[in-house]
Amino acid sequence: MIELYYFPGNANLAPHILLEELGVPHRLVLVDRGVAAHKSAAYLELNPHGRLPTLVDGDLILFETAAICLHLADTHLAAHLAPALGSAERAHFYKWLIYLTNTVQAELLIYFYPEKWSVDPAEAGRLKQRAEARVADMFDHIEASLAAHGGAFLLGETYSAVDPYLFMLSRWTRLMTRPARVRPVLGRYLAGLAERPALQRAFAAEGIAAPFY
């Protein structure tokens, strides 16, 4: 059985939602960040970077959220969580997944952990403010893209693995001055995803109560 190492609401949320969408038997393994369990010797044997999530699928031990999402899509082709290989749609799928993980998520990490980039508290505060502004610009871009194609999902009319990823990152903005949900098109998109039973099951399993975003 697949094991997903998680902490509620962390970067494990997107692959967790995908596991629920797929209906794949899996077991959640709590890594309690409150007691720094992600830095324990036992966990570091699985994931030497001490980050979440980690997925164990038989002999395969996999970390990095985007990699786990791709693995789940590629090992369950009948679910159509990613467009066909070699297609233009697949290229856009890669574009969005990489944009979300390399650009949006990376900036969110500066917002949440500015002290990692500066030991000066005043400078760390300015970094946090600047990161929030940059994240807002990124979500404006996503809003415009959703509005341009008018589809229900990030790729258009078809749900894919990039949608729970975007939902997860959007949720992380919920306490910002301009959270993702305040944008009209993105707000409707998030509300629609929040109605999916798989997403609701994932939140329930992680012990996260509504509002989800």
N-to-C order of helices and strands = EHEHEEHHHHHH
State the shape: globular
Mean pLDDT: 97
Tally of structural domains? 2
Low-confidence stretches: none
Give the number of DSSP strands: 4
What's the CATH class label of the largest domain?
Mainly Alpha
Estimate the helix proportion, in percent.
40-55%
In whole angstroms, the N-to-C terminal distance is 30 Å
CATH architecture of the largest domain: Up-down Bundle
By secondary-structure content and strand pairing, the structural class works out as alpha+beta
Describe this protein's structure:
- The chain has 213 residues and is an alpha+beta fold.
- It folds into two domains: 2-80, Glutaredoxin (3-Layer(aba) Sandwich); 88-196, Glutathione S-transferase Yfyf (Class Pi), Chain A, domain 2, CATH 1.20.1050.
- The chain contains eight helices and four strands; from the N terminus they run βαβαββαααααα.
- The chain has a four-stranded mixed sheet, covered by helices on one side.
- Strand 3 (54-57) and strand 4 (60-63) form a beta hairpin.
- Helix 1 (13-22) runs parallel beside helix 3, helix 4 (88-112) runs antiparallel to helix 5 and helix 4 (88-112) runs parallel beside helix 6 (162-171).
- It is globular and about 50 Å long.
Secondary-structure blueprint:
Blueprint: E1 2-6, H1 13-22, E2 26-30, H2 41-46, E3 54-57, E4 60-63, H3 65-74, H4 88-112, H5 121-149, H6 162-171, H7 184-194, H8 197-205
Parallel strand pairs: 1-2
Antiparallel strand pairs: 1-3, 3-4
